[in-house]
């Protein structure tokens, strides 16, 4: 038991030091990497490690006769939650959400310290001590609180009342509902039934199974599968069109969507909303190929009302590309990110 | 004067790049330089050849990620190349810009040692080349994949030179890790400011270092136009290594020169101490906040972080036209990022204006915007423009996708017909009527129902007011409005435009609510900026655009703000007294 707990304590101490180091910027905050796509699981795992660590720490301290008072345990745990949310969770979450989590965890801490009458007494003892001011130190503390609390609250209310200029928050629907059909270059395409005419095997037949085998591999780097080089001149069918799509992409799209299709192109920094990141599992991987066809052809200007990022600079590509070119570029985007388009069934 | 300096530079490049070929002719010079290593440099060993496995693995990386711009043979002629300026690197000659090695030498590359400061090519791939289309590959490719692809590039695509050939190649390495930067004191910076004149840096980089000197005659080794760096935008330095305010980057570039460009190495002619002074001065020019601290850089874009609210401060009486005036100095300056207009034809793939600094003041009648932006050239069209000012669909061609080097966008630079430099502000008309998150269409308004109000200034001195009703609709002139517009200042100085435009706030009584934006205090007024660089052939929709920003006219602080906090604090004191008394009574009750 003791051995187990001391391991726990060690874990706790190391993790706490790491976190403090990251908060104070002594340890680079990316020294424990957050892996794209596994972030929530990783966070849960980390928090579990912390809980184990805290249990170990508190056991070791009390067995060494330096038990932490319940009062400080409660406050310490709450402070940990707040700091973890602020400094570790990435991408950063807004203050309003953090405040919500903070309140929930405060309630949880209260429930924990007031689970039994005994505990509750222990918890509120330090507060009562200060209020009663029986010792000199407590007297000092009481006067300090008496002066500091009104000043602090007065200052906070002054700051919150001061007129501020913060950017208004804008919400938008990222994937608006598509129309039933879309008309591009004079031809109508029904989204439910249209197919990418270039997703074909060497015999020229539509073959998603064939093309799925040739996309780039998932995992770091997302490299092309061995023996599936679109630049091979002998290619027929799918891979040949992937290369043609890539040429179009790097003549038109990379300026915003980036060389790695991650939305970090040359001009991307200037625009808001920022260009879509196709490597994110939440974009093209969630959508049907014909949905992409509609969005590419019509651009920001063709968004329905609920999609209203009227500020989008996404071009209506029907002004620049032919229908064939649009299909090829979509083919390339799925190939390069290593995703399959979703099907309608 | 200029010719001799150009000749000297060309000489340095030639002598170093083709050093061996010229061996017999200039053996004296060469032996001298072989023994005498420039200050701060040391002779180094060539790295061993990467393994065949690594090269093969690197080929896979190259044909997934790099080939699209750099091309099948690494000649910098991939499908994306013709619409890019600077063009993607042509690897064949082995000419690389950012190095720790002496001028003309190959960069450091060792496929087994991804150590910062000892592996130039690895760092270039890791951090990208800001200001060009080369992104940072960190977090996308693993460390190993980055080394693999470089193993492939250095052995298979660099064709004219060989990284392992002891006969022809040397490595003279800048010992940057061992050199301690000189403290950036006022004295050091002052000495640096004198040295940049003495060393003729200002001839190309301009009197204020905005890259505006001699900007038109500079060519790289491949004959394409090249711009001297703008020292005020350190985040665009190719060698900034995602650490733009680090003085060591400048020291390195100054010591090693930039291969393939007119930027020579100053290592032979400048002592280490002098080089630090220059680096300190150049570094001090990069934009900083009012307290003199580096601007926060967004790690995702490697550009300054953006705040979309442009605060406008209230002033009593006339709004001063003098930038040095206290009212302007006290107003926050906002960085407005500019991208190319790439939504509608003609798309602007290379926008030479990539940011504007905006400040604003208002009084009871008008609002004034002070717009400052770097533009290496003052451009005013010769003669009359072939279209009316209201015309939007003007005859300007966009770059074709595939032209080959001769027809590429890089070849066209500095050869465009010159139009007017110009700047415009667009605000939606009737924005108060729009549902909260809706803004009019980005480019020149949506339609007759949701039009925009555009105020455009051009370098020929004109200021005009238009109504925009769609991206492809010609503007309607708002004649009566123009009498109310005023250009308080317009000046081009040392590579920077300073333009101050005053416009009425409007009111609900006598203004034309259907055509003019009403500026209301304490409200967020969507504002877009457009900029045209005349020497880039910008006209009509070929321009640079910003995202939607918000003009916010700061209301004066109401009196309550100063009163209520005291009331609240007083209340807390009372509450404390109550708690204490209660506790005391309770204890008394207990002890009794």
Largest sheet of chain A: 2 strands, antiparallel
Helical element count of chain A? 11
Radius of gyration of chain A: 29 Å
Low-confidence stretches of chain A: none
- Mean pLDDT figure of chain B: 90
Rg from Cα of chain B: 29 Å
Helix percentage range of chain B: 25-40%
Question: How does this structure look, described?
Answer:
Chain A has 345 residues and is an all-alpha fold. Chain A has helices at residues 2-23, 39-63, 70-87, 95-113, 117-132, 136-161, 208-212, 238-252, 254-257, 289-298, 323-337; strands spanning 181-184, 187-190. Chain A has a two-stranded antiparallel sheet with strand order 1-2. The longest helix of chain A is centred in the middle third of the chain and has 26 residues, at 136-161. Chain A is elongated, with a radius of gyration of 29 Å. Chain A starts with a helix and ends in an 8-residue tail after the last helix. With 592 residues, chain B is of the alpha+beta class. Chain B has helices at residues 2-17, 27-35, 52-70, 120-127, 143-157, 186-198, 201-205, 247-256, 272-285, 326-329, 409-412, 479-482, 560-591, and strands at residues 41-44, 171-174, 297-298, 303-304, 309-314, 334-337, 339-340, 355-362, 366-374, 422-428, 452-458, 463-468, 476-477, 486-493, 496-504, 524-532, 544-545, 549-553. In chain B, helix 4 (120-127) crosses helix 5 (143-157) and helix 8 (247-256) packs across helix 9. Mean pLDDT of chain B is 90; it is low at 1-33.
Short structural description:
The complex is a heterodimer of chains A (345) and B (592). Chain A has 345 residues and is an all-alpha fold.
């Amino acid at each position: 038991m003791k051995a187990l707990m001391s391991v726990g304590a060690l874990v706790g101490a190391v993790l706490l030091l790491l976190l403090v180091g990251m908060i104070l910027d002594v340890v680079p905050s990316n020294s424990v990497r957050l892996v794209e796509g596994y972030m929530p699981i990783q966070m849960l795992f980390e928090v579990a490690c912390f809980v184990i660590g805290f249990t170990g720490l508190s056991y070791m301290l009390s067995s060494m006769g330096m038990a932490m008072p319940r009062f400080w345990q409660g406050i310490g745990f709450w402070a940990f939650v707040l700091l973890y949310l602020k400094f570790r969770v990435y991408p950063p979450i807004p203050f309003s959400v953090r405040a919500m989590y903070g309140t929930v965890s405060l309630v949880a801490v209260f429930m924990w310290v007031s689970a039994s009458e005994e505990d509750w007494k222990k918890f509120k003892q330090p507060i009562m001590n200060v209020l009663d001011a029986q010792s000199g130190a407590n007297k000092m503390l009481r006067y300090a609180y008496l002066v500091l609390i009104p000043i602090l609250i007065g200052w906070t209310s002054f700051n919150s009342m001061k007129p501020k200029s913060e950017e208004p928050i804008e919400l938008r629907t990222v994937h608006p509902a598509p129309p039933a059909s879309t008309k591009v270059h004079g031809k109508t395409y029904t989204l439910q039934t249209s197919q990418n005419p270039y997703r074909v095997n060497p015999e020229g037949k539509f073959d998603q199974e064939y093309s799925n085998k040739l996309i780039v591999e998932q995992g770091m780097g997302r490299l092309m599968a061995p023996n599936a080089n679109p630049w091979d001149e002998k290619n027929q069918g799918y891979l040949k069109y992937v290369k043609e799509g890539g040429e179009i992409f790097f003549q038109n799209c990379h300026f915003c969507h980036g060389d790695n299709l991650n939305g970090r192109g040359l001009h991307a920094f200037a625009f808001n909303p920022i260009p879509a990141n196709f490597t994110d599992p939440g974009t093209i991987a969630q959508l049907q190929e014909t949905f992409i066809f509609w969005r590419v052809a019509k651009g920001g200007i063709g968004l329905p009302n609920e999609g209203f990022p009227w500020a989008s600079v996404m071009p209506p590509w029907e002004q620049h590309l032919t229908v064939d070119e649009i299909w090829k570029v979509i083919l390339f985007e799925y190939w390069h990110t290593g995703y399959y388009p979703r099907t309608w069934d | 004067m200029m010719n001799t300096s150009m000749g000297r530079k060309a000489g340095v490049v030639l002598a170093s790049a083709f050093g061996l070929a010229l061996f017999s002719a200039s053996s004296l010079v060469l032996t001298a330089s072989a023994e005498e290593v420039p200050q701060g440099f040391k002779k180094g060993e060539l790295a061993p050849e990467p393994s065949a496995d690594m090269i093969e693995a690197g080929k896979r990386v190259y044909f997934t990620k790099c080939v699209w711009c750099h091309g099948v043979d690494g000649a910098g002629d991939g499908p994306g190349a013709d619409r890019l300026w600077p063009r993607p690197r042509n690897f064949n000659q082995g000419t690389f810009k950012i190095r720790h090695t002496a001028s003309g030498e190959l960069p450091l590359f060792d496929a087994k040692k991804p150590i910062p400061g000892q592996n130039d090519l690895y760092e270039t791939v890791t951090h990208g080349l800001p200001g060009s289309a080369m992104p940072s590959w960190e977090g996308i490719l693993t460390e190993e994949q980055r080394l693999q692809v470089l193993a492939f590039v250095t052995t298979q695509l660099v064709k004219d030179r060989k990284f392992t050939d002891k006969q022809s190649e040397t490595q003279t390495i800048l010992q940057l890790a061992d050199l301690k930067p000189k403290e950036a004191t006022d004295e050091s910076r002052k000495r640096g400011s004198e040295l940049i004149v003495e060393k003729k840096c200002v001839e190309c980089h301009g009197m204020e270092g905005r890259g505006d000197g001699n900007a038109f005659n500079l060519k790289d080794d491949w004959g394409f136009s090249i711009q001297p760096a703008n020292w005020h935008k350190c985040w665009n330095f190719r060698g900034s290594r995602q650490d733009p305010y680090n003085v060591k980057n400048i020291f390195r570039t100054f010591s090693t020169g930039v291969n393939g460009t007119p930027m020579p190495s100053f290592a032979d002619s400048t002592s280490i101490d002098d080089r630090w002074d220059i680096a300190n001065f150049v570094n001090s020019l990069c934009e900083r906040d009012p307290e003199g601290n580096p601007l926060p850089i967004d790690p995702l874009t490697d550009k300054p972080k953006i705040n979309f609210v442009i605060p406008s401060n209230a002033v009593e009486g006339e709004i001063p036209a003098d930038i040095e005036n206290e009212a302007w100095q006290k107003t926050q300056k906002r960085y407005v990022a500019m991208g190319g207009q790439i939504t509608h034809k003609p798309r602007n793939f290379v926008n030479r204006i990539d940011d504007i600094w905006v400040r604003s003041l208002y009084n009871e009648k008008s609002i004034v915007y002070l717009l400052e932006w770097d533009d290496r050239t003052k451009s005013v069209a010769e003669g009359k423009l072939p279209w009316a000012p209201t015309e939007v669909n003007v005859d300007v061609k966009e770059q074709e996708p595939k032209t080959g080097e001769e027809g590429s966008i890089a070849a066209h630079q500095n050869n465009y017909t010159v139009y007017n430099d110009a700047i415009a502000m667009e605000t939606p008309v009737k924005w108060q009527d729009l549902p909260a998150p809706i803004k009019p269409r980005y480019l020149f308004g949506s339609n007759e129902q949701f039009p925009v109000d555009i105020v455009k200034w051009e370098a020929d001195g004109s200021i005009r007011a238009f109504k925009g009703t769609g991206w492809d609709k010609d503007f309607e002139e708002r004649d009566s409005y123009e009498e109310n517009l005023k250009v308080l200042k317009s000046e081009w100085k040392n590579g920077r435009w300073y333009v101050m435009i005053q416009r009425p706030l409007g009111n609900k009584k006598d203004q034309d609510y259907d055509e003019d934006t009403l500026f209301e205090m304490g409200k967020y007024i969507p504002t877009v900026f457009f900029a045209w660089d005349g020497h880039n052939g910008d006209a009509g929709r070929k321009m640079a655009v910003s995202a939607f920003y918000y003009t916010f006219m700061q209301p004066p602080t109401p009196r309550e703000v100063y009163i209520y906090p005291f009331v609240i604090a007083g209340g807390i004191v009372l509450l404390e007294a109550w708690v204490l008394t209660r506790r005391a009574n309770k204890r008394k009750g207990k002890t009794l």
